[in-house]
Amino acid sequence: MILDSLSHAARYEALHPFFAEAFAYLKSLAPDTLPPLGEPVILRKGSISATARRYDTRPAEALPFEAHRNDIDLHFLLSGGEAVFCCPRQNLPDPNPYDSTKDCETAAFAANPLWVPLRPKDFLILFPGEAHRPGCILDAPASVSKIVMKIRL
Predict the structure, then answer these.
(1) Per-residue DSSP letters for 26-63?
(2) Which of 94, 97, 95, 105 is nearest to 67 (CA)?
(3) What is the rounded CA–CA span in Å between residue 45 and residue 63?
(4) Residues in contact with 15: Cβ distance below 8 Å, sequence separation at least 6, in sequence order
(5) 80: nearest Cα among 34, 24, 118, 29
(6) Is the distance from CB of 138 to CB of 93 less than 8 angstroms?
(7) In DSSP terms, which residues pair with 80 in a beta bridge?
(8) Which end of the chain is more exposed for a tag (fewer CB within 10 A), N or C?
């Protein structure tokens, strides 16, 4: 897991062959416009996609944990603020069956999650095996705009 500001993205570009391209895309976005909500923008077929999302944060108990096996998640917050709970995948005591078409397994509960604040211009990189529960209330309920990128491992 990596949490940092987009202004420091260059520090992480060497960690994966597609990180430089993913960060360049995020830097190219106009602050007041989002790509069409919910429709993935394919930057590199089969390797990098970006999906714009807008939602209101909710109590953590109302949201599932998710974990991936093949894709890295890169969450980039444009506006609002949210808490993301993170933990190793093995801390999900009773996950639902893995869905290979979505590269995702979910769980209602995780043992000993770490609480991570995500604020505008912050990014959070979650590698396969790092379970996470995004969309949680940070300081107070908020409307969030963000980009979630899927980067093939």
Answers:
(1) HHHS-TT--SSBT--EEEETTTEEEEEEEEE-B-GGGS
(2) 105
(3) 30
(4) none
(5) 118
(6) no
(7) none
(8) C
How far, CA to CA in Å, does 133 sit from each of 92, 95, 123, 149?
A: 11, 13, 15, 16
- List CB contacts of 16: < 8 A, sequence separation 6 or more: 72, 151
Can you tell me which residue has the tokens 């520090």?
11
Q: What are phi and psi of 27, to 5 degrees?
A: -70, -25
The DSSP code sequence of 90-115 is GG-SSPPPPBTTTTBEEES--SSPEE
The number of residues making up the chain comes to 153
Q: From CA 51, how far away is CA 129, in angstroms rounded?
A: 21
Write the pLDDT tens digit of every residue in 1-43: 999 999 999 999 999 999 999 999 999 997 677 788 888 999 9
The pTM (predicted TM-score) of the whole model is 0.94
